[in-house]
Design goal:
The complex is a heterodimer.
Chain A (H helix, E strand, L loop, with lengths): L21 H6 L5 H10 L17 H35 L7 E2 L2 E2 H34 L1
Antiparallel strand pairs in A: 1-2
Chain B lengths: L2 H21 L7 H6 L6 H12 L2 H14 L5 H24 L4 H9 L2 H34 L5 H16 L2 H32 L15 E5 L3 E5 L3 E9 L2 E10 L2 E5 L3 E5 L7 E2 L7 H5 L8 H15 L4 H4 L8 H18 L3 H11 L3 H4 L5 H9 L2 H45 L1 H6 L5 H28 L5 H25 L5 H24 L5 H8 L2 H18 L8 H9 L9
Antiparallel strand pairs in B: 1-6, 2-5, 2-7, 3-4, 3-6
Chain lengths: 142, 588
């Protein structure tokens, strides 16, 4: 899991930083709601640890394309997940003999639901993460 | 079961949790430390911490108990509990981390610039948090009683005391340590005993539970609370205690077919091969209805789908899970953390169905008392016995307490954070002039803030403790499923539309939360109060997500469309902030 170290920070041990919560801003007297919302929107996007992207004044079209790509990826993945989870109960409902099929004394329904789905989830998670990161890398390289 | 060993395990887990909590105490830290460990936690440790916080009584005891009682259809609980994180990877984890919001009310206010939405969200966080706490506390009561015979209130009081101590002294930093450790403890506590259990099961000829639940051997059942059961075939039992109003002292009686009432603290010994009597009012699953999916209960297909909707979409609305994303340094590592959570959970959820299966074979008497959640605790002693059984049983008890403590402290911290914010606003609203005269952001402010958080922590823990003493106990996985349904019907639409749709307005969000979240809450309250007579009504109320989630989406979208001119002025900048990736300084 070494590849999973914080990717946004500098090399070496992570810096300890103070992160200002909206509430802290409020405590400093900036209580106007509109003021705070504006301050929020203008703050550096990801807190002090991650530097904002090089073209932080990104042109909207590029970012909008990224948002579209990520949304399509996310919805596609959820569609695949939904299809999987929709079809299994439906198969058992539509073809009742399937419910009683056994493999080595253990019902296939149990093997499918309790054992086979979890590895499929792991695979879906890995693929989605990789593709989402690829979209982001491409955006930053553009 | 060896109660001395088990009590030692409970005390050790409680004490180590409390010690870790005190260890994290360093005075003078800023609130962000108290809250989210200053965002310095690596994806693996953070994933283990999320797993540790997430795996509650419902996962550790509840799924096995439901599988014991109802069979194949209950296997979907473990599936939904994992798959919810896939939705988080796909659409929520990274943008939410980039939003910089610590809680859902924070997110609502930042995205929609509306205090009303914030307040509605805060009420829902507290409601979901407390609903989720109930089964943790009930399960603690059941566990302590099962292993030591302590009264039912002892467990909730013990868990609440430790949680108050942990939350008040250490905050999130200590909780991160504790949670990551507790994931591994919980995994070990189920995985090691199950190896021995499966070996013992194979030595027994690897039987599959066919037909009605029956006692495999002569079994003494201890009934602690009076229960009326239905006996289908006459059976000869030895009873010590109260039966149908008669005092009996180790007398052999023939139970005729029909209903019989066992009094509190009664022991009944059933012969091997006798069918297990079920409490009147429950619908027992016969062999086929238990083994095959969709073969028992009312409208099983709807119930299955509704459960999947609730667990899939409810995960993102759990207050104690969301705040954990802020312990990741950036959006990308929040997504990786979530990916790691999926495989940690995928491994864990392979185990509870095995306990349910073995429980059906070797602890069927739990069907008579209705306390099926105890099966995980009883199996090691029942199936292995001797010193090994006692030691494995002790390990399981330790894991169970880790589950109660970690989930309860995570929930309490989240609810406390939201309460403290609302409380602070109320105070400032009352004396706004005085506050701004103080030293801005000074030491006094921070101290006062941490004090407020601690007081809120005490309140956040005490209310569910009191509730747990008055609300009737239900299966842990069942109640947690209801909390998921409320979260899915309120926060899932708020987050998904808030992150991906610029057209969401404060009005749409507020009305959607009130209508959808309110409808789901009402359904939950009616279900907890008692089963309504009509079958479809009961199913719709006890599994609300399949209708309440689309309802919330529809209301939010429709009202937002109608109030289009109230789209927040900052929406484009806010969305850019949510979706702009960080520059990876050390990219491979």
């Amino acid at each position: 899991m070494t590849a999973d170290g914080p990717s946004g920070g500098p090399a070496g041990p992570p810096r300890r930083v103070v992160v200002a919560h909206p509430r802290t801003l409020a405590a400093r007297g900036e209580t106007g709601l509109a003021h705070r919302a504006a301050a929020y929107a203008q703050a550096p996007p990801h807190g002090p640890q991650a530097e904002p992207a090089a073209g932080a004044s990104h042109d909207d079209a590029r970012l909008r394309a990224l948002i579209g790509r990520q949304l399509r990826l996310g919805l596609g993945m959820i569609g695949a997940l939904a299809a999987l989870l929709l079809c299994i109960p439906l198969a058992f409902a539509a073809v009742p003999p399937l419910r009683d099929v056994r493999l080595g004394g253990i019902p296939v329904s149990w093997l499918v639901i309790a054992a086979a789905l979890q590895p499929a989830f792991v695979a879906l998670g890995v693929v989605t993460t990789r593709r989402a990161e690829a979209h982001e890398t491409r955006y930053l390289a553009e | 079961m060896s109660s001395a060993h088990s009590l030692t395990a409970v005390v050790l887990v409680c004490a180590s949790t409390a010690l870790f909590g005190a260890y994290g105490l360093r005075p003078g830290r800023a609130t962000s430390d108290f809250f989210v460990a200053s965002r310095t936690v690596s994806p693996l440790r953070n994933a283990a911490a999320i797993g540790g916080e997430y795996l509650s009584a419902a996962s550790f005891l509840g799924i096995a108990g439901l599988v014991l009682a109802f069979g194949a259809d209950m296997l979907w609980y473990g599936i939904g509990y994992t798959a919810g994180y896939l939705v988080l990877i796909a659409l929520v984890a990274a943008p939410l981390r980039r939003s910089g919001a610590y809680t859902i009310p924070d997110f609502a206010e930042a995205r929609l610039a509306s205090r009303t939405v914030r307040r509605v969200a805060a009420v829902l966080v507290v409601g979901i948090g407390w609903l989720y706490m109930l089964p943790q506390l009930h399960a603690a009561g059941l566990t302590l009683r099962t292993v030591t015979g302590a009264p039912l209130w002892a467990g909730p009081v013990a868990v609440t005391s430790v949680v108050v101590w942990v939350v008040a002294s250490g905050g999130m930093r200590s909780v991160t340590f504790v949670q990551a450790f507790q994931y591994w403890l919980k995994l070990t506590a189920l995985a090691v005993p199950v190896l021995f259990l499966v070996i013992a099961w194979r030595a027994d000829g690897a039987p599959w539970p066919e037909g009605d639940a029956r006692f495999r051997e002569t079994t003494e059942v201890t009934v602690r609370h009076a229960v009326t059961v239905r006996v289908d075939e006459p059976v000869t039992v030895v009873v010590h205690g109260t039966l149908d109003g008669w005092r009996l002292a180790d007398e052999t009686v023939q139970l005729a077919a029909g209903s019989h009432t066992f009094g509190g603290d009664t022991r009944a010994t059933f012969p091997a091969g006798a069918a297990v009597p079920h409490p009147v009012g429950t619908v027992p699953r016969d062999g086929d209805g238990w083994t095959a999916p969709l073969s028992g209960g009312e409208h099983p297909l709807y119930a299955t789908y509704s459960l999947l909707v609730a667990t899939l979409l409810g995960t993102m609305g759990l207050p104690h899970v969301l705040v954990r994303f802020h312990t990741s340094p950036d959006g990308r590592s929040a997504r990786r953390t979530t990916r790691n959570v999926v495989w940690l959970l995928a491994g864990f959820y392979l185990l509870p169905p095995l306990y349910g299966l073995l429980g059906r074979l070797y602890t069927p008497e739990l069907l008579m008392t209705g306390r099926t959640d105890a099966t995980v605790l009883l199996l090691p002693d029942r199936l292995i016995g001797g010193t090994a059984g006692a030691l494995l049983g002790t390990l399981v008890v330790a894991g169970a307490f880790a589950a109660f403590l970690s989930t309860a402290s995570g929930l309490t911290l989240s609810v406390a954070g939201v309460l403290a914010q609302e409380f602070e606003r109320a105070v400032r609203g009352a004396g706004s002039g005085r506050k701004s005269a103080g030293r801005p952001g000074g030491v006094g402010d921070v101290r006062a803030e941490i004090l407020r958080l601690r007081l809120s922590g005490v309140a956040a823990a005490l209310v569910p403790c009191l509730l747990s003493l008055v609300v009737a106990e239900r299966s842990a996985a069942d109640v947690v499923g209801l909390a998921f349904a409320v979260a899915a019907s309120s926060f899932c639409p708020l987050l998904l539309l808030g992150i991906w749709w610029r057209g969401l307005t404060p009005h749409g969000a507020a009305v959607g939360l009130v209508v959808g979240g309110g409808a789901a809450m009402t359904a939950v309250a009616l279900t907890m109060a008692g089963e309504p007579g009509h079958v479809w009504t009961a199913v719709l109320l006890s599994r609300p997500a399949a209708w309440s989630v689309p309802l919330t989406f529809a209301v939010m979208i429709a009202v937002s469309r109608a109030t289009r001119r109230h789209i927040p002025a900052e929406v484009d900048r806010t969305l850019a902030r949510l979706h702009t990736p960080e520059t990876p300084a050390a990219a491979p």
